[in-house]
Specification:
about 300 residues, mainly beta, four-stranded antiparallel beta sheet, about 45% strand, disordered N terminus
Amino acid sequence: MSLRPLARLYGYMSKGTMQPRVLLDGLAMPESPRWHQGRLWFSNWGTRQIVAVDLDGNSEVVGEGPDGLGWATNWLPDGQMLITGPELIRVERDGSRVRHADLSHVSPLGWSEITVDGRGNVYVNTINFDFAEFNEVLTSGKAPGKIALVTPDGEAREVANELAFPNGMVITPDNKTLVVAESFAARLTAFDIADDGSLSNRRVWADGVGPDGICLDADGCIWASSANMANDCARIREGGEVLERIDLGRPCFATMLGGPDRRTLFMLTADWRGTESIENVIKTRTGEVLVVDAPAPGVGWP
C-alpha cells in the first residue's frame, strides 16, 4: 500500500479562516485517531494496520490490529498499548499480546472505541450487536450499546447501557465528565464520573448532530459532524451550537487535536456512506487524513 503525503487544499466554510489540507491519502478506512509521542496514530480498517504519521506526512505501519471494522488503540499510563476488537488486548513490552481484562460477562460481541483517563481507568464501548444487523438496528430504534470500565486494579464492569451505537468518547481534563457519541441517535451524551469510575447523571450534551470519532478542546467544544449525513467537520458547543464548520465534501469519521501544542485538528475521511460494501472502500482507497490549525488546543483524553 502506498500512503502519500499531499498538500492539496480543500474548500472551507466557516466563521473563521482555517484552510485544511490533505496530510495523507491512499488509505482504506482511517478511524480512531490518537496523538501519541509526536505523531498521529490511527486504525486503517480493512488492512489490519496501525499507522502513525507525523506533521510532515511521513507515515509508517507501526502495528497490527484485528480483522474487520470497529477496532481502536490507546495507551495505559505506563505506555503499554491496548487494542480493542473481539477482546481487549494489551501489547506487552516484548511484543507479545495478552488479554487485558475479561469483558465477556458485559458483552460477548466485541469492543470498539476506547479512552484511558488521567487516573488509568480504561473505558471501552460496544455496539453490542452483529454488524450484519446494522440496518435492522438502525431502523428499529433499539439501543443495545454499552460502556465497560476496567480499573487500574483489573476490575471490569458495565457502567452504561442502552446506547444507540456508541462511538467516540472523550473525558474532560479533570476526569469528571465522559462524553460519548451516540451515532444512531444523532447526539452527544454526557455522564458524570464518580471517584470509583462509575458513570451517572446521564444527559444530552448536544442533539441533532452526526457524531462519530470526537475530540475536545480547551474551550469545552467538541469537533464532530454537524448533522447526520453532513459532509463536514464542525466545532460544537455544549447545547448544540455550531461555532465553526468545515465543508469536506465527504463524511468525516473521526477527529483528533494534536501537534506540539495540540492546535492541529486532524480529520479522518473516506468516501463511504454505509450503503456500499466496505470491501469496495478498501479497494478504492479513498481514505484521507486532513489537517487544519484549530482555534483552541485539545484537552482531556484521548
